[in-house]
Amino acid sequence: MVKVATDFIKCHKWTFETPLSELAQYTEKISKSLKDDRKVRSNAKIRFRVLGLTKEQVEVLILIRLTGKREEGRDTVDKIAQEIVDNDYSSEKIKQISYDLGSFTSNPIARSF
Q: 45 with 89, same domain?
């Protein structure tokens, strides 16, 4: 789906100087435009790089998909969110959980929070 990448670049006039925060606004839209096919996503990533975006920018636009493997003992984000709601955690506790989750991610946007 190189056309998706090309269309987004042309429409929004993105360059290597475009801030990650601006690109992050389009992550979901791009994800919906691409099939859940590893090769399609890979081709789109390559096309974004060829069109001048940095590796970090491309990682923000096209999130890394997990392979479906899950480490034992780790809770999903949904489960953690439900625990926060059920136990009415304080804002300090929520910030700590957020920091802990962000510090283990490979996504540069998530790491910045």
A: no
93 assigned to some structural domain: yes
The pLDDT tens digits of the residues spanning 43-75 come to: 889 999 999 999 999 988 888 765 455 555 566
Q: Could you tell me if residue 72 is inside a domain?
A: no
Per-residue pLDDT tens digits for 80-97: 888 888 888 888 888 888
- Domain extent for 107: 77-111
> How many domains is the chain partitioned into structurally?
2
Closest CA to 101 of 17, 86, 109: 109
Neighbouring residues of 7: CB distance < 8 A, sequence distance ≥ 6: none
**Tokens linked to 90:** 């304080």
- CA-CA distance, 19 to 87, in Å (whole number)? 37
**Has this prediction a pTM greater than 0.85?**
no
Determine the 3-state secondary structure of 21 from DSSP: helix
Domain annotation covers residue 41: yes
